[in-house]
Amino acid sequence: MPKRVLVVDDEAASRTGLQALLEREGYEVKAAATGAEALEKARSFRPTVVIADLVMPGMDGLALIRSLQDEAPFAVTILLTGQGSIETAVQAMKSGAYDFLTKPVDLRRLSLLLEKAMDRARMGRELALLQRQVGTGDRPALLGRSAAIKAVLQQVEQAAPSTAPVLVLGESGTGKELVARALHALSPRARASFVGVNCAAITESLLESEIFGHEKGSFTGAIDRRIGCFEMADGGTLLLDEVAEMHPAVQAKFLRVLEERTFRRIGGKTEIQVDVRVVAATNQDPEVAVRDGKLRADLFYRLNVFPITLPPLRDRPEDIPLLAEAFLQQSATTNRQMVRALSPSALELLQRYAWPGNVRELRNVLERAVLLAQGEIIESSHLPDSLRGSQKASDPSSTLTLPLGITVDEAEKTLILKSLELAGNNKTRAAGILGISVKTLHNKLVRYQSAGAIPAEPAEEEKTK
Q1: CATH number corresponding to 396-450
Q2: Domain 4-127, what architecture?
Q3: Which residues of 56-79 are buried (b: 16+ CB within 10 A; e: fewer)?
Q4: Phi, psi of 397 (to 5 degrees)
């Protein structure tokens, strides 16, 4: 990111002096005498940090901050004030200022503050890019307006600057690798390597070599020295995907590396020191994995310093229109199709479906629909039968009549049981039809069973997709 600073001060001596000082420090600096001039220069200069006097004729510093949100949305603002009151500081922060300095300026504090402001601007820009990213390859998008996904993005921003291990939890297809890449991109390690290894995709015999590397001749087939993922990620970030699938013996060695920051290649005698930020991910409940002996308890506690849980798509249906639009545009561009929109009926089907494959499944469904569509609009007929089957509007058995005088609780129970019947006793699909989470549906069914309103045992084992 360019080290561009815009200095705004109506006092000529203060303005030129600050500009000269910052240029000597290696910053690219422009100066403006008024707020209006600052806005004009911001349009072409695109400053990373703006240092502005609070009290100026015409447009003051607070008004300038508000105007800069349109002209330079990623710029971080530091205000200069001769008043130095707590009230001024609070007002400045509420208006969007990163911090403020009192006049005369403490040059040492300004230098430290500028470095932090530059980092803040970079993180803000990267986070904005992350929120717009629609994902490629096998990486689904971490995109949405829901409170759940906003909470995840906030956790990513909070965890990124640290070196603490992060444990990313979530079902398959929710975007765990994308979170790991975001943590790397927003961290001080962004210029170093991001290395990922899928513990479930590599055989037990090769996993240790994949992670730690090996020396030539250390075992049959080791015809050359191999550098492992730990060495490749030195100075950067290592993602261990599906960490609960790692063999217990490898888990023990991995725990030692986390504790001591050193390891040996297979067959090696030299201790290799590394500086790696570890992000682990799993689609399993880690506490259940510990209980079942699949994941070492000490490794779990070491990795679980900063857990981030990704919500399944069925728990954030309000994000589906935004995700669908992003995937539609991406697929249409990639495949050179003229498709530009979803019909209301197609969008309704997308929002009613439970999405057991999460965002990855949504992306694949939209890509298929783009290829099938003959015109500019994706219709319901372009969607898979599994989605159209989740809304059996034309089926007489899908209608439900409630008698007058029925209580709200009885109506709710009848609706839930009817939806479960239509979904073939698949709780995930039934929850999608009802627009509630699977956990909520499960809790209601348990309550009905406890009250004797329905059999204690389900009539059919829930189907999985």
Answers
A1: 1.10.10.60
A2: 3-Layer(aba) Sandwich (3.40)
A3: beebbbbebbebbeebbebbbbbb
A4: -70, -10
Structural domain boundaries in the chain: 4-127, 147-309, 314-388, 396-450
Enumerate the β-bridge partners of residue 237.
194, 277
- CA–CA gap between residue 185 and residue 391 (Å, rounded): 41
**Cis link prior to 73 (omega < 30° from 0)?**
no
Question: Does 396-450 match 147-309 at the fold level?
Answer: no
Residue 259 is predicted with a pLDDT of 87
Strand order in the sheet with 28-32: 28-32, 4-8, 49-53, 76-81, 99-102
CB 365 within 8 A of CB 384: yes
Which residues does 77 contact at the CB level (< 8 Å), separation at least 6?
49, 50, 51, 52, 61, 64, 65, 68, 96, 97, 98
Residue 291 CA, distance from chain mean position? 29
User: Model confidence over 397-409: pLDDT tens digits?
Assistant: 445 666 767 777 7
Contact status, residue 188 vs residue 197, Cβ threshold 8 Å: no
| 20, 395, 403, 408, 431 from 417: Cα distances, Å | 74, 17, 16, 14, 11
116 and 78 Cβ atoms separated by less than 8 Å: no
Of 393, 327, 398, nearest to 364 by C-alpha is 327
Residues 6+ apart with CB under 8 A from 232: 193, 195
Domain 147-309, CATH number (from 3.30.390.30, 3.60.140.10, 3.40.50.300, 2.40.50.90): 3.40.50.300
Q: Between the CA of residue 424 and those of 30, 419, 435, what are the distances in Å?
A: 67, 9, 17
Q: List the one residue out of 431, 410, 420, 429 whose CA is nearest residue 458.
A: 420
Whether 377 and 339 have beta carbons less than 8 Å apart is answered as yes
138, 210, 241, 278, 301 from 257: Cα distances, Å = 29, 15, 17, 11, 15
pLDDT tens column, 38-75: 998 887 788 999 999 888 888 888 888 888 877 777 78
19 token code pair: 């500009």
Cα 311 from Cα 169, distance rounded (Å): 9
- pTM beyond 0.85: the answer is no
Closest CA to 214 of 255, 253, 260, 165: 253
Instruction: Name the token pair of 152.
Output: 């995840």
**274-306 pLDDT per residue, tens:** 889 999 999 999 999 999 999 999 999 999 999
Q: Which of the listed CATH numbers 1.10.8.60, 3.40.50.720, 2.60.40.10, 3.30.160.620 matches domain 314-388?
A: 1.10.8.60
CA terminus-to-terminus distance, the chain:
45
